[in-house]
Structures are given as C-alpha cells and as structure tokens.
Specification:
The complex is a heterotrimer. By secondary structure, chain A is mainly α. Chain A has helices at residues 3-34, 41-61, 69-91, 101-123, 132-135, 150-171, 173-183, 185-190, 195-217, 227-242, 247-267, 272-286; strands spanning 139-142, 145-148. Chain A has a two-stranded antiparallel sheet. In chain A, β1 (139-142) and β2 (145-148) form a beta hairpin. The longest helix of chain A has 32 residues, at 3-34. The N and C termini of chain A lie far apart (55 Å). Chain B has helices spanning 43-50, 73-79, 96-110, 131-141, 157-169, 187-202, 215-221, 239-244, 246-253, 262-265; strands at residues 3-14, 17-28, 32-37, 58-63, 66-67, 81-84, 123-124, 129-130, 175-178, 207-211, 224-229, 232-237. In chain B, the strands form three sheets. A six-stranded mixed beta sheet of chain B has the order 6-9-10-3-11-12, with helices on both faces. In chain B, strands 2-1-4-5 form a four-stranded antiparallel beta sheet, covered by helices on one side. In chain B, strands 7-8 form a two-stranded antiparallel sheet. In chain B, α3 crosses α4 (131-141) and α3 (96-110) runs parallel beside α5. The longest helix of chain B has 16 residues, at 187-202. In chain C, strands 1-2 form a two-stranded antiparallel sheet. The radius of gyration of chain C is 19 Å and the shape is globular. The two termini of chain C are 13 Å apart. Classes of the chains: A mainly alpha, B alpha/beta, C mainly alpha. Chains in contact: A-B, A-C, B-C. Chains B and C meet through α2 and α3 of B and α7, α8 and α9 of C.
Chain lengths: 300, 269, 311
C-alpha cells in the first residue's frame, strides 16, 4: 500500500464523489420538497449530456473557440431543462401529487421510459463524442500520476452546486420558503406559500442539476442511449445513504460512495460493481432513514 | 380483591422530556378506573407502556402475577389486555363488518383454527360461533349494525370510536384500556356512548380503565380516579376525593366542579 | 370474477392451452411460456402489493431461480424440467427466508429501495464472476421430461404444457392461501399496521411469509424462463428487469390470481408488437401504457372485468 496508491485512491475518489454529488443532489432536493422519488432524474442527466454534446460539437465544428465550450456545456444543460422540466411538471406530474409515493415513483418511471426513446428519436442512436473540452486544459501531475485539469472542473462544479444550494436554502427568500415546504407542505400552504410554484421551481432546479452533471460528463465519455440508466440507481444509492431530502447527506453519501468505490477499484476490483449497493443495503439495515434524517412525530 | 394489573416504579423519558416518573398503580379486578390529567401529562404514555408499544426505562408491569414489561403489543392483546385509541385505529378502506372479520380472523389464527388445511367454518373461541355471527353480534352490541357495510373512513366520529372499541372486544379482553373514548364526540353523545360502552363491557366482568377530560363523565362512571400531572400521579382515590384534591383542582380540573346527578346527565332520547 | 369462479376459469384456460397448443406456431408457444414465467413472478408481487409493499428488486429471485436451474445443468448435467423448476423455487425461497428477516422490517419506499439494492448486488456479483460467464452469462441445457428429450417439433409444446399445469396448480394454491387468516390480513396490514399488532398478529411475520412465497414464485418463474430461452445472464437481476415485473403487476391489478398471467401475456404482446414496429420506440409505448393504466385503471386491467360483471 504505497503512498502513491493511497493518493490515487483519494484523488480518484474525490473526482468520482464530485460527479456523484452533482448527479444525486437534485434527486435529494426534489424528494425533500416534493416527497417524490424521481426516476426521470436519469433522463435529465442524459438530456443534459446529449444537449451538451450535440450543441457544443456543432458549435465547435463551426469554429467556436474551444475555451467557450465550458459555457456552452452549461448553457445547453440549462436550456434543455428549462424546456422539458416545466412541461413534465405542469403537464403531467402536477395532477398526480395526491397519489401514493410509490405510485408517483412508477409514474416517473413511465416518464423515464418515454424520455429514453424520445432521446433516441431526437438524437439518433450513434454515439456523440466531443473530446476538446476534456483535453483543452492539459493535465497536471501528482507524484507519478497524471490527471487532466478537466477533473478539477468537475470538482469545482460540485462545490459550486453544493455551496450554491446551501446558500440559497439558508439565505434567499425562495430558499427559506423551500425549507418550510420541506418540513410540512400543509402548514406551508396554510401560511400562504404558493406550494405549486415551489414544486415547479424545485423540479426544474433539481432536474437542472442532473442535466449539468450529464453535460459536464459528456466530454469524458461517448454519449450513447442508456446513459441515464445506471445513474439512476447510483444516485438512489448516494441519496439513500445520506438520507432522503438531506443536502449534507447527499454530500456525505457522495463522498462515502466515491471513496469506497475508488478503494475497491484499486484493491478489490471484483467487488467494484456491487460494493456501492452493499453500502446502501448496510446503511438501510442499520439506519433505515439514512445517515441524516428528519425527526418523526408520534403516531398514537 | 386481587390486583389484575400492577405497575411499579415506571419511568419513561424522551430526551429531555419526562413522560412518566415513578408511576405506581395497582388495578383491582372488575373495577372501573378513570385517568385524568392535562394533555402531555403522561396518560397515553402510561397506556402505551402497559400495552407494550413503549418500553419503560425503569420499572415493572405485572398482569395476573406475570411480568409483562417487555412484551410486544400483539402478545399483550393475546393474554387479555385490550386497548382503544385516542384517534380510532381502523382499517380505512374496509367496511365495519370487514374490520371485525379481520380481528376475528386473527383470533382464529392465534387459536390455530381456520388455517391453510382446515375445512368448513371454524368456531371462534370464547363465542363458539362462526366468524360472521360473532361479527354481527359485536356490531349490534355497540349499535353499529346500520353501519355494517360502510367503509370505516366515512363513518362519523362517535361511530368510529365505537368501532375502535368493538374491535378490541373480539379478543375477549379481561382488562380494557380506553384512551379518551368520548373525545371528538358532541356533548350530547358523550354520556350515551359511555353508557353503551360500559354496558357492553361490564356485562362480561371486564376491568375498565378510561382516560377522560370531561369531569362529569369521570364522576359518573369511575369508581376510582387517577390524576396525572407532568408524568406523575398526583391523586388516587374515589372521584369525590380526587376531583376535590387541591392539586388536582389546580393542575387538572380548574376551579369548582358542578356535579350532575345521573338523571340530569341522560340526554334526550 | 368472484372468488369461487377462479378455479373453474383456471381449469378452462389449462384445457384450452393444452388442446390448442399443438396447432399453434412456435413463436406463440414461446410467448405463452414466457408469459407464464413472468406471470408467476408477478403473482408473487401481487401478494406483496396487497400488503402495500412494492419490491423494486424482485428480479433478484427471478435471477436466482434462473441461475440455479442453469447451474444444475452446467455442473451436474441435470436437465429435467421439473427438477430445475423445483430447484429454482427452493433456492429463491431459501434466500428470501434469510433476507426476509431484514426486509420484513421495512415499508414503502425503503422496502422498495432495499430490495433494489439487494438485486443490484447480485447483478454486480454475477457480472464479475467469470466462472459463470460474466456479463455474457451461459447457455442452459435443453430440457428433458422424465429422462426423455422431446422431439424438436414438440419441445416448445411440451414445455408450455408443463408450465401451464404448474402455473395453474400454483395459482390454485395461492388462491386458497388468500382465503386463510394470514392471506386476508394483507389489506389490514396495508391500511393500519398498528391496529394489526393490537389485534394480536405480527405484521412482520405475515410479511415475511408472503415475501418467501413471492420469492419462491419468482424463482419458479426464473427457472422456467431460463430453460425456455435457453440462456441466463446477469441482466436478469438488473433493475430494469424488476421494472418490467412491476409494470406487469400494475397492469394486472390485484383482483384475481389469473390477473398476473393475463397481464404478462398482454405485456408480452405489447412488447413484441411495439418492438416489431420500431425498436426505438417500444419503451415509449411501454411508458405510455403504464401511465395510461395508472391514471385511468388504477386497479389494473382486472378492474375492467369487475366492472363488466357489476353492470
């Protein structure tokens, strides 16, 4: 167990945690406010990736300076979410909130299936590949390991998202209203908070975070159909570990899962694929509500 | 008379809140006990501890000489301690009749009857009748016959309370703990409901303990009153004494009590 | 469909399948057999749904049953259909007996997510197990019945016949179970567990029992599917497979033991037709169908039959 290996585990872990956090934090926000487990989260991740890849690729081909590509990645993600998310929330979800939480989950699952094919119809099934934003900034060395600077962008995006969200929830008016809704929807409504508008905002914002995650991942992979499928279960794992609805929980969950996965890749590759779910199962077994959770009122 | 239920030194806290502090109560067989106290005084916590929903931090509970402190609610019910709830616990999507049938099914299951390999209609222990007849009989006894096929969630408040109590009778309890049987019921109905309950219940020689906020109901129906305050029992005696105890007046009743005698208390038919 | 009619209808369906089978095209026989296999899994899910529980990871037991059947062939040369189905059922039931101690404590979303996690653990394990073919899986030996390998033209029919008989027997057994006190406890557990406890029953015990039964059914279905398709792979444990089962469960509803099989058949037809029209839109068709059923037929397709009877 050399220092170099340990460092590799740490750095890989942080990078992966950053990606997990950005991918999962929107899911926990949506659950916290709307009390729904949103399977379309994976669809928005994919939408973000596809929009980013196709738009950035097209603009780069037309001679856009590569340094602008990062802004375009972000912009594409925001654009596609602003179009699709409100449509879904206002058009379909809005009528379903009275239903059981498992039923709503199944509705979002149905929407996920529909969106999977919608993506194929719009963007086709061939892979999209935009290499430039990834290699543009060059790489740096830590001891004998080489890392592209791009990975720092990912970490930066994660910190920005987390910090920004925390700031918003604690220091802005909208954020405080959201916290009220997170605690109790009925009471919030009785106090005059426009809960429906909060739902629309949350769904859009949460999905946007997923799309941003997808967009910034796009330059590191080849964007193909099915991109969102694995993200869904991974995000579930992170969010469940941290506690559904908890922002610090999502961060902690992401760090735990990221480091554990990184460690297993380096030391025990045979368990790499399922160790995350093992951690999720163990957390659920010992702390059913996750590591951070809201208090429960008495029933009888 | 022997004590059917004996609680000794019960303590229970939830973090900084002490819900029960050194509770000692010996309940005699075939008696009627009224529990009074403000909200949060520890009455429901006491019932929750006896029925196993909560475990006391310290202390013991004995039932018919046996230590039942660590038993779960389902075991408590099986040995003969029944309990009704402040907020009626019913099966909302099932009819009153179906609610009763579920309870009877459980009693049959516990008695080893009506399982996968049984044939015909098994008889319910204690009644020696088939399940449906037991259900009808209990519904009638509590005046619920007309609500037989209505879903529990559409039943009016007082009816829900009665169904909640009727459900506890299925398992033939020897002692019944009623948590606010008349709360949420209009002033006129209170006495009628309490009369009906007591008649149905006392006919079987069941020991009754009921939580109540209406002092008139308490003085009319209870033989002995326990007053709770801040997790402690501050008075224990016949209604006259307990309700006029200065501490009870101060913390629970508040001021003078005007007693109605039985005739005045009966509502218009 | 009143409870008393189910046995008669089941017997009727069995007779029809056995009589018409020899004249049906091979692809129909295949479709029907797979529908029976998935129907078995969904029958189990229906038991849990009646308690208010949805397992997001039932594919775990489907896969265990399938791999058990496959491994008996691969390592022991066994190919008798009955033995394999029994083995699949037993393996899954055993796993559920153990896992049930943990899972029976959970409700709602957490039950779903924990079951999901467990199925994904199996998926990950299988993908990394080279001895079992990793993500490619491996082939399953052709079925034999009582030591005899049916002629090629008759294999599909033979398997279907066996599957139909087994499915009908199982459905009748479950139907009987629904009439017992534990079986009837399901809607009570769903509505008010506290009341169940205070009536003197253990909700956890009842759920554990149903969980094991559901797993046994899924294992049975998995073994059947493995032998019919002739192949097993880790995808059988993936969450999308569980999603399919949930889809069929919603489609079928909880009205009768026949509903899961009907739902599986309709699902199979939709899937085949939609995939045939356009491989890139069949998921969209599925998703839309699911939405339509949830919104307009919340009690599943079976509620259509119920209404017709009442009218």
């Amino acid at each position: 167990m050399s220092v170099e290996q340990l460092l590799a585990v740490l750095i890989d872990g942080i990078i992966y945690s950053a990606w997990l956090f950005v991918a999962a934090v929107g899911l926990t926000l949506i659950y916290g406010v709307m009390k729904i487990v949103n399977v379309t989260h994976g669809s928005f991740y994919a939408l973000g990736a596809y929009a980013a890849a196709s738009i950035t690729g097209a603009l780069l081909a037309r001679g856009m300076p590569p340094s602008l590509s990062y802004a375009v990645l972000l912009g594409s993600a925001l654009l596609v979410t602003l179009v699709v998310a409100p449509l879904i929330e206002r058009g379909i979800l809005r009528f379903m909130y009275a239903k059981d939480e498992v039923v709503i989950l199944l509705i979002t699952y149905a929407l996920f299936l529909i969106l999977e094919d919608a993506i194929k119809l719009i963007w086709g099934v061939s892979p999209y590949f935009i290499a430039q934003p990834y290699g543009l900034l060059g790489s740096f060395d830590v001891l004998d390991l080489t890392y592209p600077y791009y990975n720092l962008i990912l970490v930066g995006v994660a910190i920005l998202c987390g910090g920004g969200l925390a700031w918003m929830l604690n220091h802005t008016r909208t954020g405080k209203l959201l916290v009220a809704v997170i605690h109790d929807t009925e009471v919030s409504r009785a106090m005059g908070i426009n809960v429906e508008r909060m739902y629309l905002f949350t769904f859009t914002f949460g999905s946007m975070l997923a799309a941003v995650g997808g967009a910034f991942t796009a330059p590191t992979v080849s964007v193909v159909p099915g991109l969102g499928v694995e993200v869904i279960v991974l995000s579930f794992a992170v969010v469940v570990i941290g506690g559904l609805g908890s922002l610090p929980g999502a961060a902690l969950g992401a760090v735990i899962v990221g480091l554990v996965r990184s460690a297993t890749i380096h030391y025990l590759p045979q368990v790499e694929l399922f160790v995350i779910y093992l951690v999720m199962a163990m957390v659920l077994a010992f702390r059913p509500r996750g590591l951070f959770s809201l208090a429960e009122a008495r029933k009888i | 008379m022997a004590a059917i239920l004996d609680a000794q030194g019960l303590h229970k806290s939830f973090g900084a809140v002490t819900a029960a502090s050194d509770i000692n109560v010996a309940i005699e067989k075939d008696s009627v006990l009224g529990l009074i106290g403000t909200n949060g005084a520890g009455k429901t916590t006491f019932i929750n501890m006896i029925t196993g929903y909560l475990k006391p931090d310290r202390g013991r509970i004995h039932y018919e000489g046996r230590d039942i402190t660590q038993l779960a609610p389902r075991d408590i019910t099986r040995i003969g301690i029944g309990r009704s709830f402040q907020i009626p616990q019913l099966y909302a999507s099932l009819s009153a009749f179906e609610n009763m049938m579920i309870g009877i099914g459980v009693v049959l299951w516990n008695a080893g009857r009506g399982g996968y390999f049984s044939r015909g209609r098994p008889l319910v222990p204690g009644y020696d009748l088939p399940a449906e007849q037991v259900a009808e009989r209990l519904l009638e006894r509590f005046g619920l016959a007309e609500y037989r096929d209505k879903n529990a969630q559409v039943l009016p408040g007082g009816v829900r309370k009665l169904l909640d109590i009727a459900l506890t009778m299925v398992a033939r309890p020897k002692i019944l703990l009623l948590d606010e049987p008349t709360s949420g019921v209009s002033a006129e109905e209170k006495f009628a409901i309490m009369e009906m309950i007591m008649q149905a219940v006392r006919a079987e020689g069941i020991t009754v303990l009921f939580v109540e906020h209406d002092m008139e109901v308490v003085s009319r129906f209870a033989e002995r009153v326990l007053a709770f305050y801040d997790g402690r029992i501050i008075a224990d005696g016949p209604p006259d004494e307990a309700l006029n105890d200065p501490e009870v007046k101060r913390y629970v009743v508040g001021g003078e009590l005007h007693r109605l005698d039985a005739a005045q208390a009966r509502p218009r038919a | 469909m009143s409870a008393g009619r189910a046995p008669f209808t089941l017997a009727l369906i069995l007779v029809v399948i056995l009589a018409v089978g020899p004249f049906a095209p091979q692809w129909t026989l295949f479709l029907l057999t797979i529908a029976l296999a998935k129907g078995l899994v969904v029958l189990g899910l229906m038991l849990l749904l009646r308690c208010g529980l949805v397992s997001f990871g039932q594919a775990l037991y489907y896969c265990i049953g399938a791999y058990a059947a496959g491994m008996l062939g691969r390592y022991f040369g066994m190919s008798d259909l009955f033995t394999l189905m029994l083995a699949g059922m037993a393996a899954s039931a055993l796993a559920a007996l153990v896992l049930g101690f943990l899972l029976a404590r959970y409700r709602g979303i957490f039950f779903g997510l924990l079951s999901l996690a467990l199925s994904m653990i199996l998926y990950g394990l299988l993908v990394k197990t080279e001895a079992l073919g990793s993500s490619d899986g491996f082939h399953v030996l052709p079925s034999t019945l009582f030591g005899v390998r049916p002629a090629d033209a008759w294999v599909r029919y033979a398997v279907l016949a066996v599957a139909a008989v087994v499915a009908v027997i199982v459905a009748l057994l479950v139907h009987r179970y629904l009439d017992t006190p534990l079986g009837k406890l399901a809607p009570a557990i769903k509505d008010n567990e506290i009341r169940v406890e205070y009536m003197g029953a253990s909700a956890r015990y009842a759920i554990h029992v149903k969980y094991v039964i559901a797993a046994a059914l899924a294992g049975l279905g998995g073994a059947l599917a493995a032998t019919t398709v002739g192949h097993v792979d880790p995808e059988m444990a993936y969450w999308t497979t569980s999603g399919e089962f949930i889809f069929i469960t919603i489609l079928a509803g909880t009205g009768s033991v026949i509903a899961p099989f009907l739902g599986a058949l309709i699902f199979g037809i939709i899937q085949t037709v939609a995939f045939g029209i356009s491989p890139n839109t069949w998921q969209m068709v599925l998703g839309t169908s699911l939405l339509v059923v949830i919104v307009f037929l919340p009690h599943g397709l079976w509620s259509l039959f119920r209404r017709r009877k009442a009218a």
